[in-house]
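Q: How do we represent a protein-ligand complex in a form that can be generated token by token?
A: Start from the inputs.
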Amino acid sequence: MLFGRKKKNPIKLHDKGVQQWRYATCGYCSVGCSIELGLNAEGQAVTTRGVGGADVNRGKLCIKGLAEAAVFNASGRGTDPMMRSRIFDEFETTDWDYALDHTANEFRRIQQKYGRDAVAVVSTGQIMTEEFYTLGKLVRGLIGTNNYDGNTTLCMASAVSGYKRSFGSDGPPGCYDDFEHTNCLMAFGSNLPEQHPIIYWRLKEALEKRKFPVIVVDPRVTMFAQFADIHLPITPGTDLVLLNSMAHVIINENLHDLNYIQQSCNGFEALEKLVQQYDPTSASKICGIDEDMIRTVARLYAKADSAMSIWTMGINQSTHGTDGVCAINNLNLITGNIGKPGGTSLSITGQCNAMGTREWSSCSGLPGYRLLENPEHREEIGKFWGVDPDFFPKKAGLKETDIFPAIETGQIKALWIVATNPMTSMPNSARIRKSFEQLEFCVVQDTYADCECNQYAHVYLPGAVWAEKEGCFTNTERRVNLTRASQPAYANSKPDGWIFNQLAKRFDNYENMHFPESAEAVFEEMKQLSKGIGPNGKARILDISGMSYEKIEKSRGIQWPCRDNDESTDDKQPSPTGNRVQGTARLYTDGVFQFPDGKAKLLAMPYVENNEVPDEKFPFWLNSGRVVEHFHTRTKTGKIGNCNKFSPTAYMEMNPDAADQLGVKHMSYVRLVSRRGDAVVLVQLTHRVPINMVFIPFHFHDCVNRLSLGLLDPYSRQPAFKQGAVRIEHIDQQEAAKLNVSMRTF
Ligand SMILES: Nc1nc2c(c(=O)[nH]1)N[C@H]1C(S)=C(S)[C@@H](COP(=O)(O)OP(=O)(O)OC[C@H]3O[C@@H](n4cnc5c(=O)[nH]c(N)nc54)[C@H](O)[C@@H]3O)O[C@H]1N2
Ligand SMILES: Nc1nc2c(c(=O)[nH]1)N[C@H]1C(S)=C(S)[C@@H](COP(=O)(O)OP(=O)(O)OC[C@H]3O[C@@H](n4cnc5c(=O)[nH]c(N)nc54)[C@H](O)[C@@H]3O)O[C@H]1N2
Ligand code: SF4
Ligand SMILES: [Mo]
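Then emit the structure tokens for the protein with MGD bound:
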């Protein structure tokens, strides 16, 4: 029946009058899509499109990328620096010189009175790598506080600690191309279709060409779980038990790769001994996965010619986050699945530049994966920057999750927040609020003046956003990609790199240091620091010396290591789109790791039950995460038409059977109560969550993080955002609706 169709008019897209396209890398998530901004005759960004020839996304974008041209003029942008007058508590516009002078003076005053570390700096995963490097130079080289960290402690810290413990270095060893080669994929605590839609699309593409089993481990029936061949609805916080038990089956059934283990790993005997305690019968009682299913999955994984694991926040945000990461690494090491096509242990990262901060910000040490604990590294960087190496602390300072308690105890008096919004994103917001109230001095540097932290700022510095400035992001697969400046900075806002440079000028020793003006010049400086010999006596892995802005743009991103002679690039298969000029798709292809003896560590890790778990008073697990339309605390997506239209209010997923038992109706309001506080939220009944769990997207202020506990992982100090206990109470619907309206809605 074709007639009728012919009569239909083809869809006409509104002509936005694009005159030119400018190259960028998406500024939301870590997938790292190549994107072009369409500028009209006045030079204004009016639309975006995916870049067809880019390896990562091959022309595709998700809903956020498609609407990204709207971030520049979205409501709430900061126009001018602001300062709070001490006497009247009024927040007033000021000029840059005054705001920066005051900031530098206050930092100095507080450091003189209370000590150098009384000033803390908390940054982000969302500014350019060159800006991270500059901030690190300013904080480590001039301000000199050791309490300097980023929101990656809420996000990727467990993956970093886990990679370091297993392989001797940070750096995800795999890449998206591994989907094209793998014979079995296991995903832990990752909701790929919503959180990394274009990686998910890459996976689907690979599956269309060649079928292989996909196993999803998640207590919720996410979209990813629905699409999986096998879904393992694990008891929250117990992935370590499942993984130890899989290792038990693999080793006891002789399915491990003894050759690889002997050549490339230490610690096998201890692991073998420990996992004897994790027979599937005992393990299933803790992790909630049927014992035969544990055996099936272990055999499937170990027998596959190549098998890969991916994971995200379901693993990292747990009291066993780092152990969970190491257990995933164990699984891949004992089956010989590291550094081979389709065989890898790939942490899917989060923010657009979650990797850039790990590599170059000096948050956890010194730039280029160097360590404060290593005297040679202190010496080398001191010399390079023009700083006395003795000025550097000899070990890393407090993490974000320890900085706030240190404000509570009075150890820290000033806080500089750069591109993060902890009032909404940290667990237990009541405590965070109290900490903010206690600060003598608080600086908030954010693109949007309406971010919740700004209520507590004494100085607000408006940062330019994304393609208003130039620089690089590194994505999940170590691909460095470029954003060209294509818009002027909004109103009187300034690029973060400019702000760091101007502040640097106001500190002693600035004269002896060098702060290049342009992002490209900073990149050239980082290139020099990236060369050299790593801890295992071979060339450093985080080597970007073979890259340049021009080459990066031409190749639509280059994966490190990329060395200037390129001799040592060990995995040079051609990129599917023919773009790769240089760069390395996979790490550890030679089975040599970053420890001095070159061997990876198999780690024997017992499971210790230490979470808050549901009980009679608080009978539901509280789980939290994200939805596709929103990004984090909604400072951007909360104002963007389609993103906000599809997901305008906070809600809670609740199982219909549990609701039936409590007499809770679909689309009614309830009050949730935890040991920390309470929150009013709209109920959405769905079988996506089990009967003893509720799930709330964390994007909305005054909601899930009023309730969350956030016990910390001992290695990474990352909070267990996804495990807590709550009870559900009825609330008068009229009163609830009023409360809900009074919460922030854009
Ligand atoms: N649309 C959108 N995309 C984003 C972001 C965003 O805000 N919005 N943020 C970006 C960032 S920074 C990050 S870090 C990533 C996060 O990406 P994801 O980690 O994929 O997203 P989440 O929804 O936080 O959590 C994933 C899943 O972990 C599960 N989970 C909870 N507890 C456990 C457990 O104990 N074990 C296991 N195996 N799973 C568990 C949850 O049920 C949830 O479905 O997304 C990135 N992409
Ligand atoms: N309950 C619960 N809580 C969570 C999580 C969870 O799963 N559950 N996930 C955690 C995770 S993984 C993460 S990553 C964190 C994220 O938490 P946050 O980092 O607090 O969230 P964002 O909203 O991304 O905050 C970034 C801020 O930077 C600003 N910004 C963006 N670009 C720029 C720029 O170029 N310059 C400047 N100066 N500012 C800019 C934005 O306006 C925004 O205010 O939340 C964590 N919190
Ligand atoms: S998948 Fe991530 S990087 Fe790609 S368009 Fe969407 S938000 Fe941007
Ligand atoms: Mo994150």
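The longest helix spans residues 96-114. Residues 155, 350-351 surround molybdenum atom (ligand 4) (CB under 6 Å).
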